[in-house]
Specification:
The chain has a single domain (14-266), classed as TolB, C-terminal domain (Neuraminidase, 6 Propeller). 0% of the residues lie in helices and 43% in strands. It is built from no helices and 25 strands. The protein has strands spanning 5-9, 20-22, 28-32, 43-47, 53-58, 70-75, 81-85, 99-104, 110-117, 120-126, 129-134, 147-155, 161-162, 172-178, 187-192, 198-202, 207-213, 219-227, 238-240, 246-250, 255-259, 265-270, 288-290, 293-297, 317-322. The strands form six sheets. Strands 6-7-8-9-13 form a five-stranded mixed beta sheet, with no helix packed on it. It has a four-stranded antiparallel beta sheet with strand order 1-25-24-23, with no helix packed on it.
Length: 324
């Protein structure tokens, strides 16, 4: 088992870090929804090679709510930054179906790609499309009574798509059920493998699924990619290295899981409940690769229930691991 180290303590305008992307100039970009303190705006920050951090911008709020809460982020080939604005984490039930997919141009213009989403979460971009996990779809009543979640796909140039959060949405390419009765929370982590297949994590079940595509981009088939309840409990943000190893932020277990190319699963790091100030995993939300490190933002906001985390502490932190 590896020991994580402290990558950095974050400034006081960040209380909930979430997702990572790497900019064209090599800087690390971090989304900060700041759910633990509603008075703080959701923002995007940049970290340079010397680990100096600066605020890039506050995400443009939705006028109706006065908030923006950026979670999953990704750059497209034009260096537009795509953002999952997940407003449903806020306690006001009026915000539940106010989630957006935003595209911010290099010049700073914010374009709404989609609106009305219940719980947009993770994001990846490939071959002219943005793929988004929607973790909850409470409007879809499955006969089993289990939670439905979905993968949405938006073309790079789409704008102002009205999402209904039902199976009528044309942008849905796949749906899943979450079987764990103790955690009815669906798709979260998302990544492409080296063959162009889409990997998605079903958070509540702690499973990874593979979506393969036909040449016309339609879904060819969906299969189980990895599952190991002893070593992988929940599946938040994830990333694949050059060797084909998949690293997963095991959010509720304060751990990092790794799936090897042969499908075997190993828990490579784990921390007790802590404040994260010594580099411990304090509710890891993402696993990103940057300059030979596995960089791991610590969400440190959800408490109780299945989560090892028991309270929120400041300052917020990022942990890291050296990759072999």
């Amino acid at each position: 088992m590896k020991t994580t180290k402290l990558f950095m303590k974050l400034p006081d305008y960040i209380c909930t870090p979430d997702s990572l992307a790497v900019a064209a100039n090599g800087e690390l970009v971090l989304s900060c929804p700041n759910y633990a303190d509603e008075s703080l705006p959701g923002c995007i920050v940049r970290i340079d090679k010397n680990r100096k951090i600066r605020k890039w911008f506050d995400v443009e709020p939705l006028p109706e709510t006065g908030h923006a809460r950026p979670m999953g982020i990704a750059f497209d080939e034009r260096e537009n930054l795509w953002i999952c604005d997940n407003q449903a984490w806020l306690p006001n039930p009026a915000y539940k179906f106010k989630g957006r997919i935003l595209r911010v141009t290099p010049e700073g213009k914010t374009v709404t790609v989609a609106y009305g989403m219940e719980h947009p979460n993770g994001m990846r971009i490939r071959n002219g499309y943005a793929y988004v996990t929607q973790s909850l779809m409470e409007k879809v009543a499955d006969p089993s009574g289990l939670m439905v979640s979905a993968v949405y796909r938006f073309a790079i140039d789409e704008e102002n798509v009205a999402v209904t959060n039902t199976l009528a949405d044309k942008n849905i390419i796949a749906t899943f059920l979450t079987y764990n009765p103790e955690c009815q929370y669906g798709l979260d982590g998302i990544e492409f493998d080296h063959e162009g297949n889409l990997l998605v994590g079903n958070f509540g079940d702690g499973t990874i699924h593979r979506i393969r595509f036909n040449p016309d981009q339609s879904v060819k088939d969906i299969s189980l990619y990895a599952a190991d309840p002893k070593n992988l409990y929940t599946t938040d943000g994830m990333v694949m290295d050059e060797k084909g190893n998949l690293y997963i932020a095991d959010f509720s277990a304060n751990a990092i899981g790794m799936v090897r190319p042969d499908g075997t699963v190993e828990r490579i790091a784990e921390s007790p409940d802590s404040d994260g100030f010594g580099g411990e995993l304090d509710q890891p939300s993402e696993a990103g690769i940057w300059n030979g490190l596995l960089v791991i933002p610590c969400f440190d906001t959800a408490v109780g229930g299945i989560h090892k985390n028991t309270k929120h502490e400041m300052p917020a932190t990022i942990a890291c691991l050296e990759l072999d």
